[in-house]
Amino acid sequence: SAIRREDEMTEHTPGDWKVSDQGANVMAGNTHLAMVNTNLPEWRANTRLLAAAPDLLAAAESDLKAFERIAEIVQSIRSRDTDPQNALDVIFDLASMPATPLAIQKARGL
Predict the structure, then answer these.
(1) Amino acid 6: pLDDT
(2) Buried b (16+ CB within 10 A) or exposed e, 94-103
């Protein structure tokens, strides 16, 4: 896909990113990744958003793959190579992936 720029991005720090017990730091295990400016009124939300970044990236990549697959299915239906009912079943399965809602919940602290 023309959108992907995987070759231009280095990998981020692996692991489950979490907000520290103090609340203003983002950690990956024992590795300190970031400290948020606590002078801002929205600092807690900023910290949660940073901690959710790997999950949000993974969800976006998963969604992109699903949308690409749906586009392929729609094209196949248009060319009459695929039974529409089978295609709808596949599209429903793709739309049922939980990665995005879970990542958004983490970013919002829910």
Answers:
(1) 54
(2) beeeebbeeb
Nearest Cα neighbor of 24 from 33, 12, 36, 32 is 36
Which pLDDT score is estimated for 35?
A: 94
As a whole number of angstroms, the distance between CA 47 and CA 41 comes to: 12
Instruction: Give the residue carrying structure tokens 């990113």.
Output: 17
Instruction: Identify the pLDDT of residue 8.
Output: 59
Q: How many residues does the chain have?
A: 110
- Asked whether the predicted pLDDT for residue 1 surpasses 50, the reply is no
| CA–CA distance, 19 with 7 (Å, rounded to integer) | 29
